[in-house]
């Protein structure tokens, strides 16, 4: 089945925001080159996978985990150009929203499956790539259907349709047994929701007019629950779902909403925490009520918050600005130059973490959740 993605143009609000970004002073603390050092993280040990083999990882979500699905879409939410990917293999941009690897890659690496998780829309995928898992995530998306529509990216509903197409390919190439092994023993991961908070709710007056915090997070939860039940009905059994990070402490939100001192925007964090509380409860309910389901809520909030508030504890020096440009607002095509010492930074751009920060988050996820997910 061939899918075609038809979306409306970007909203005037998003375009206005981009114009405002250009108007900010771009005093560069930076240089055209940088070095990313491999750090040792004594506080977050590498996950040691001992017993049952996970044959594949299947990823859904947004730019936190997208590995290049947006490259061929007509959207500004793509980063297949320098300086993105400067510390990836060969220093080549691949569409990953960071300087190197993203959580999708670290999950398969830490589990010993393969080095990176390829995007499903990569035209060069081979049978081995398909059998060990692929990535359906699309940067700019979210739980609210309006989020993906405004960004002209692949919605969760469309990601599910692509997953169905993928499973048919696996069956035709490798047989029913291989497909069933992916469904029953594969690890399914979902990471999205940030854009719902930053772009669709707080930057959209109509959403704020029709929804308060409680009702909007209910809308997000209904979408998340429907998506997870769709995955379950298609055969997925081991599913980890990341909560939304502390959005108000991202460099971009500090700049836009944090006042002259660039403090964390607490109303953004309040909405994120409310959603995470409801998401955790919904996942617990689904896991108990769906036979043989193993669903886990994954903390995507408190560990990142601790890294931001106590960067030196994790081997970093800078956590209130990103590495590219001024570090205060730049993302995507606004990132022209980078810092010279990316290993000291928690954030790569004003919205996304560096690969070293992502590695810490992934190891924490695996250490705390895999024993439950693979029982």
Automatic annotation (TrEMBL):
Domain of life of the native organism: Eukaryota
PROSITE patterns: LIPASE_GDSL_SER
Key words, A-Z: Signal
Signal peptide residue numbers: 1-28
Record carries keyword Signal: yes
Biological processes, Gene Ontology terms: lipid metabolic process
One Pfam family recorded for the sequence: Lipase_GDSL
Tagged with keyword Signal: yes
GO terms for MF: lipase activity
InterPro entries: GDSL, GDSL_lipolytic_enzyme, Lipase_GDSL_AS, SGNH_hydro_sf, SGNH_plant_lipase-like
One CC-aspect GO term: extracellular region
CDD domains per UniProt: SGNH_plant_lipase_like
Annotated SUPFAM superfamilies: SGNH hydrolase (SSF52266)
PANTHER family referenced in this protein's UniProt entry, alphabetically: GDSL ESTERASE/LIPASE EXL3, GDSL ESTERASE_LIPASE EXL3-LIKE
Family recorded in the similarity comment: Belongs to the 'GDSL' lipolytic enzyme family.
Name assigned to this protein: GDSL esterase/lipase EXL3
Organism: Centaurea solstitialis (yellow star-thistle)
């Amino acid at each position: 089945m061939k899918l075609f993605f038809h979306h409306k143009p970007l909203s005037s609000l998003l375009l206005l925001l981009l114009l405002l970004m250009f108007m900010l002073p771009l005093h560069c603390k930076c240089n055209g080159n940088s070095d990313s050092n491999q750090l040792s993280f004594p506080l977050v040990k590498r996950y040691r996978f001992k017993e049952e083999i996970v044959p594949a990882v299947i990823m859904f979500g947004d730019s936190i985990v997208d590995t290049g699905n947006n490259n061929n879409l007509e959207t500004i939410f793509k980063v297949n150009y320098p300086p993105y990917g400067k510390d990836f293999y060969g220093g080549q941009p691949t569409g990953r929203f960071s300087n190197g690897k993203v959580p999708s890659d670290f999950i398969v690496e830490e589990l010993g499956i393969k080095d990176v998780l390829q995007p499903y829309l990569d035209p060069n995928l081979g049978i081995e790539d398909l059998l060990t898992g692929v990535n359906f995530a699309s940067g700019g998306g979210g739980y609210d259907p309006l989020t993906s529509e405004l960004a002209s990216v692949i919605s969760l509903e469309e990601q599910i349709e692509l997953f169905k197409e993928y499973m048919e390919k696996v069956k035709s190439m490798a047989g029913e047994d291989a497909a069933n092994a992916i469904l029953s023993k594969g690890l399914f991961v979902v990471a999205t929701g940030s854009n719902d908070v930053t772009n669709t709710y707080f930057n959209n007056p109509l959403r704020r007019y029709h929804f308060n915090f409680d009702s909007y997070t209910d809308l997000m939860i209904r979408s998340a629950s429907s998506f997870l039940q769709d995955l379950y009905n298609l055969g997925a059994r081991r599913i980890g779902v990341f909560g939304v990070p502390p959005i108000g402490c991202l460099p971009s939100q500090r700049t836009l909403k944090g006042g002259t001192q660039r403090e964390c925007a607490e109303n953004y964090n309040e909405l994120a925490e409310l959603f995470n509380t409801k998401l955790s409860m919904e996942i617990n309910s689904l896991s108990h009520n769906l036979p043989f389901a193993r669903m886990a809520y994954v903390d995507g909030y408190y560990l990142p918050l601790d890294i931001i508030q106590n960067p030196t504890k994790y081997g970093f020096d800078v956590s209130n600005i990103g590495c590219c440009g001024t570090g205060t607002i730049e993302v995507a095509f606004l990132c022209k130059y980078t810092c010279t010492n990316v290993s000291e930074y928690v954030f790569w751009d004003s919205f996304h973490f560096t690969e070293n920060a992502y590695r810490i988050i992934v190891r924490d996820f695996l250490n705390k959740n895999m024993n439950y997910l693979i029982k």
